[in-house]
Amino acid sequence: MELAIRNHTGSSSVQVSDAVFGVEYKPGLVHQVVVAYLAGARSGTKAQKNRSAVSGGGAKPWRQKGTGRARSGTSRSPIWRSGGVTFAAQPRDFAQKVNRKMYRGAVRSILSELVRAERLVVAPELSLETHKTKELLALLKTYEVKDVLILTDGFDDKVFLAARNLPHVDVLSAQEVDPVSMMAFDHVLATEAAIKKLEERLA
After folding, report:
1. Total count of domains within the chain
2. Phi/psi at 18 (5° precision)
3. pTM of the model
């Protein structure tokens, strides 16, 4: 299949593989991969102290009988002030296993849906003379995109610096793109070289 390249000198296109940019959309697979990706980003470091981890409370507060008060074995019981937490949170790993075939299949599915929905914009190249945000905004205006993920074939410091102050613009290289980022924006603006690298990565 062919993807149209937006330029101001004339019409052109780039030939891409149907196996990467023309597959059926699989919402179940995409959902599973996105959930696994977001779960892997969780730190899982929250922790609370249960009654055995709270210091003190070794001696019985008072004798079992004869005081007129309820029996108690430790002052670090969860019902006491400064006591332990009943069901204390412990550090855990939220990572979910997703094999490489599933991950690549989900990315292909997302790319194909972006093409069908006309949310994937291909540019011949993205070159800025300076790292000014004003220059990048003018460039994005020519492509008629605002909420956009910019994909480059490699790290471009000028594009990165120009976009870092824009709340609805992000810049990633073709090697580090992920499913969540591609779905988080209204449009994906990719260079022709980035499209080729994505095709090589997912072929």
Report:
1. 2
2. -65, -25
3. 0.82
